Amino acid sequence: MTPKQDTLICVVGPTAIGKTKLAIELAKAFNTEIVSADSRQFYKEMTIGTAVPSAEELQAVPHHFIQNKTIYEPYSVGDFETEALEKLYELFKINNTVVMVGGSGLYVDAVTKGLDYFPNVSEELREQLNAQLNEEGLESLQKELEQKDPSYYKKVDLQNPHRVIRALGVIRTSGKPYSSFLNQEKKERPFKTIYVGLTADRETVYARINKRVDLMMEAGLLSEAKTLMPYKDLNALNTVGYRELFDYLGGRFTLQEALSEIKKNTRRFAKRQLTWFKKNKAIHWFDYRTPAKEIIHGLKTKNALQ
C-alpha cells in the first residue's frame, strides 16, 4: 500500500472570520497539531490586540508559533519560513496531516511556496525607517519609494507602513529596485497543501471586526497598549490596534477617534487579506457559517488527503 502523502491543511481568510475555531476542529478530526501563521500572534507581550487564541483553545489542540517570540528581537518572514518548515517536518514524522492557520498571506506563502530572495536588511536600517515614519510621516516614505521603484509603488498598498518600509529597506541595502527581486522561481515543497478559506459578505466581515474591536477594548486593550507605549517604535508594535492607541496616548486622537481608526484600519486590513488570498486559485472557499463537520467530511471523502 502506498503511504499517504504528507499534507498541510491551510486555513485562511480575513480577520475575525472564525479561522481559529475551524482549525481546532480540523486538528481534532485528524488527530494532529496546529502551526500558526499569524505574524501578529508571535509575540508574547501582545495578547489582547492580536486576538491570541484563548487558554481553552490552546489547551484543546497543541499550537506552535503562538507568543513564542519577544518584541525586543527582530523576527522576519524568512526566519518564520525556516522555523515553520523545521516544525512541519518534525510533525510529519508523527502524523502525515498538519493544520496551519493564519491571515498573514505572506507568511502562509512563505511556508507553502517559498519566498523570493531578498538581501538582509540590518536592524539599524529598520529602526531608521521606523523613526522616519514617526517623525516625518508615511508620506515621506511613499515619496522615496515612488522615486526609487515606481513599478512597485504602483502595486504596493501604500497605506501599509510595513510593506513600504520593507521595500525601502531592501532598496537602500541593495541599491536595486525592490521589484527586481520579485517573482523568482518558487520552491517545491515535499508536502501537499490543501487550502481552506472562510469568507462572508463585506457587511458581515465588517460587523464581526467592529464587534471584535469592542470586545478587545472591554478585555483591556487600552491597558495593554499603555504598558507597551515605551516600546512603540519597535517594528512588532507598528500594527493596527496598538498604533492608534499610541496616538491616543500621545494626544493625537481622542479615545473615540482612536477606536474609530482601529475599526477602519482593521477593515482595510481585512480587504487586503481577501485581495491577497483571492489570487490563489487553489483555495476552496466556504461560507463562515459552514459547519466544521461538513468541511471535514469533504476533506476525508473526496480523496483530498490522498
Automatic annotation (TrEMBL):
The reaction(s) this protein catalyses: adenosine(37) in tRNA + dimethylallyl diphosphate = N(6)-dimethylallyladenosine(37) in tRNA + diphosphate
Cofactor(s) this protein requires: Mg(2+)
E.C. code: 2.5.1.75
Molecular function as annotated in GO: ATP binding; tRNA dimethylallyltransferase activity
Enzyme class: transferase
Positions annotated to bind substrate: 15-20
Keyword Nucleotide-binding annotated: yes
Chain spans, region Interaction with substrate tRNA: 38-41
Keywords noted in UniProt: ATP-binding, Magnesium, Nucleotide-binding, Transferase, tRNA processing
The organism's place on the tree of life at top rank: Bacteria
UniProt-annotated binding residues for ATP: 13-20
Pfam families to which the protein is assigned, alphabetical: IPPT (PF01715)
One GO process term, biological-process aspect: tRNA modification
Gene3D superfamilies the UniProt entry points to: 1.10.20.140, P-loop containing nucleotide triphosphate hydrolases (3.40.50.300)
Subunit-structure text: Monomer.
Function comment: Catalyzes the transfer of a dimethylallyl group onto the adenine at position 37 in tRNAs that read codons beginning with uridine, leading to the formation of N6-(dimethylallyl)adenosine (i(6)A).
Family per similarity comment: Belongs to the IPP transferase family.
Name of the featured protein: tRNA dimethylallyltransferase
Lineage: Bacteria, Pseudomonadati, Bacteroidota, Flavobacteriia, Flavobacteriales
